[in-house]
Amino acid sequence: VARGYLARPGLTADKFIPNPHTTDGTRLYRTGDLARQHPDGTTIFLGRSDNQVKVRGHRVELGEIETALHTHPDITNAAVTLTDGRLIAYTTTNTTHNPTQLREHLTRHLPHYMIPAIFIPLTTLPLNNNGKLDRNALPKPDNNRPQIQQKYQPPAPGIATTIANTWTQILGIHNIGANDNFFELGGDSILTIQVVSTLAKHGITITPRNIFEHQTINELTTIATHNTNTPTPTPTPQNNTP
């Protein structure tokens, strides 16, 4: 597949190791997958030996995201997990926790699919008896609106409320405000397609490009077209506590 990682000799040496079964100089790629081979030749996948995960088709090293977070001057410690298909960042800081600034910082270092959907501030990261990070003890995120810079503003009745209900359904987040940014809530290019498809069933026409160019509900309502002949399904109930 490849001979190494571009401009990353350390990672290449760690992952592309000499083949112990030959003397011809060939190498093996250390995938990080754990497996057991039965006597009949069947191989059973057991899981991972590292923190590599798969996010919507992309292989992601959680450690790379943690390293990028540590380059922010306010971060004192960080951990990242994959929970229910979403990347969750846990951070301790020496100042006020600001998810918007952290997200903007990461976008300068990482591709979009490696940007955490949720940032959870902690006083300290939980450790096990060996002094290492205890990932199982990290708090699980809830479905409430994450801490973002925008002040909560309820969506107006009509198209705005329908879009908000659709975002709630797809993102799994309650109390989405009219000025909340789709991508700051954890949206991505794959989810824009789901939003477009769901809104079409409500008679509302937008495109994925529209969502990238108009990233809040209020902005989308200015360019969305609504077919009034299409019945609007019953709205999804929301907890109105911001």
Describe the model:
With 242 residues, this protein is of the alpha+beta class. Helices cover 26% and strands 21% of the residues. The protein has 7 helices and 11 strands. It has helices at 9-15, 62-70, 99-107, 159-171, 189-201, 208-213, 217-221, and strands spanning 16-18, 27-29, 33-37, 43-48, 52-55, 58-61, 75-83, 86-93, 118-121, 204-205, 225-226. The strands form 5 sheets. It has a 3-stranded mixed beta sheet, with helices on one face. A hairpin with a 5-residue loop joins strand 3 (33-37) and strand 4. Helix 4 (159-171) packs across helix 5 (189-201). The radius of gyration is 22 Å and the shape is globular. The chain starts with 8 loop residues before the first helix and ends in a 16-residue tail after the last strand. The mean pLDDT is 83.
Quantity of strands, as a count: 11
Question: What is the global morphology?
Answer: globular
Q: How would you write the strand order of the largest sheet? A: 7-8-9
Structure annotation, total helices: 7
Largest sheet: 3 strands, mixed
Summarize model confidence as the mean pLDDT: 83
Contiguous low-pLDDT stretches (5 residues minimum) are none
Give me the strand/helix succession: HEEEEEEHEEHEHHEHHE
Q: Helicity range of the residues?
A: 25-40%
Which structural class matches the secondary elements?
A: alpha+beta
Strand content: 15-25%
Which features does this protein show?
alpha+beta, 242 residues, 7 helices, 11 strands, three-stranded mixed beta sheet
